Amino acid sequence: MSRIDLLLHALDSTFDKESWYAPLQHAVEGITAEQASWRPTGEATKTIWENVNHLIYYKERLVANLEGREWTHNLDGDETFYFTEQSTDDKEWKKVVERAENIQSSLRQILSNISVEDFVQNSLEEKLLDIFLHDAYHTGQIIQIRKMQGSWPSHR
Q: What is the rounded distance in angstroms from the CA atom of residue 45 to the CA atom of residue 22?
């Protein structure tokens, strides 16, 4: 297995291919905007929606960089949690989930077609590993929030 194939496997397992931990897509599957907007007790806690915003932001920034597009949404770490506006509208929540799916697809396509030279030149391995670990960390938080609110399926 090549390094790129290994990274594609990690990309998939953190998003939609369950391995020994639940991927992001499964973590947000079937929840409503109200559940995504629910905030656990405590000042430092984030909602599911805010966590998904945060993950989208960093993948969109990486994809823009890899495509040579200027990234104009320069936010600090905390601001990224508010990248899209939360609401109780299920249609708006579905747009956020679709945005996460679309940016995942874009990143996967880029990685699938990248040359070894571009891969090395962009220090992509390190950036991707950071993204994967970051996604897994926040997916764990999302699952914990779902367990706290009673919306995590018992069969998982």
A: 21
